[in-house]
Every structure is written in C-alpha cells, then in structure tokens.
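look at this:
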Amino acid sequence: MTPAALGAALGRAVAEAQDAPPGRALALIRPFLHDIGWFTDLLAQGCAALADDPLHLPGFRASRNGAARHLVLARTERIWLSATVIDPVPQTGSRVHFSGRHMLCRPLNRALRAEGFRLEADRAVPTGQRHCAMGEILEVDERRETLRILPDGAPLMLLRAQVAPQGSVRSRICDFATGALVAQAEADEGHARALMLLSLLRAQGRADAAAQFGEALDTPLAAQRWAVMREYLALDTASALPALRAMAQRESDVAVRALAARTLTQIGNMACPA
C-alpha cells in the first residue's frame, strides 16, 4: 500500500475506531504505528511545502505541555494520534500521570528509556525501568500503568496513539516522591463540554435550564458531581435544594456528602438569620 493510500486508510480506521469496542479500536489503530509510510509521506509533503513557502503552516493542531511538544495528526473523542518531541529536561519534582487511556508509542529517532509505575490503591508504585528500541512499539494500559520518560541528553521523537475506553475516562496524578494521589478528574471531553455549557447557562441566568443541571449530577466522579452542584446552586438555589438534600443524605463519597451537608446548613442559616 502506498503512503497516500495508508493515509486515507488511517482516516477511515480512526473514524471506525471511535465507536468500536476497546479491543477492536486498538486493532484498527495498531497497524499505523507498525507501517509508518503514511507519516514519512506526511513529513515529506510538509518539507516540500516549507521549501516553496517559508511561512507555510501545516493544517494540524500543535500544543505544548512542559518539555513535550505535540502535533496532533488525528483526533476524536476516543482516539488521539500525535507526533511528539520530548526535550531532555530534568524532571525534578514532576508528577506521575495515569491518563486512563491505552497508549501505543513508537520511538522514531532513538531508543526510549523510562521509569515504570503501577497504580495500586490510588498510589503510584515504581516497577523499574522500561526500554523500547527505535522502531519498536510499546503498549501501556494507562488506567493502571504509566511511564515517566527519562531525559537522555537529546530530544526524543515519538509517534503516539491513545485509545480511550468506552464510557467515562478517569485520569489520576500522583506525587513522584511519595506516590500519593494528588488529583483526579473525569477526562472525557463530553463531560468537560457539559460542565462548560452549565457554566455558561449559569452565567446567563438561564433558570429554565435547571433540569439539565439535575441530569448532569449523574457522573461517576464525586468531585465533578460537586462541581455541577455548585453551578446548580449558583443558578437557582431553590430548584437545586432537593438535589442538595439528596446529596447530603445519599452521596457515596464521604467528603462530598459532608460538603453538601455543610452547604445545606449554611443555606438554612442564611434563610433564617438568628
């Protein structure tokens, strides 16, 4: 298959993988990390365009996070494919990130060397060094395992794919020194968009949308249930009170249940001043 045909096939595979079960989604994406003719062709086209026009900008989203620079080659809510360059910056004081997705990566310019970690009872436990030779494929289920790439004196270039499970995606960040969990979040874009829309509705005073706030409380992560509740209370406290009472009585997370109970007491004190 020619590089151009591979590129077209990649687009079809990403589209099909979006709604496929996890095993099938991985099977659809994995071949494009083994045969990277499409990527070589993409680089050649980009170099040719720059030779013709030094101000040419490729039609891909670029981002940076610390020492890592990303060029996003394909993206849906579940499937990310990117070319990543990681600069050799010492990672003192950094944290350990479990993305909640299945990661596949292929080192393109040199071997990859990393520290491995496993998530046990919400704590990152070191598992030793991992190595991946240039051109080989490394797969990591980042719901339970992750890698902390070690700087080796030169930038590392990777072709990397991330495949999310169906349903909610929970990411976790642990402290590197102690392994303790320091943050977690619902990482799927659907919930992030929903919370942003709720914030906009609250800012616009759309009390007629109160039902949508109640429905959004049905999310699996306790911290995000409380984030929705805060927006609901700010929009229409009276409408939110039944849901707040239910949260104060039946919320499964102890900390959020206590927050709901304290907030309920504060609202009662404001309504009935001494």
About this structure: The longest helix spans residues 254-271.
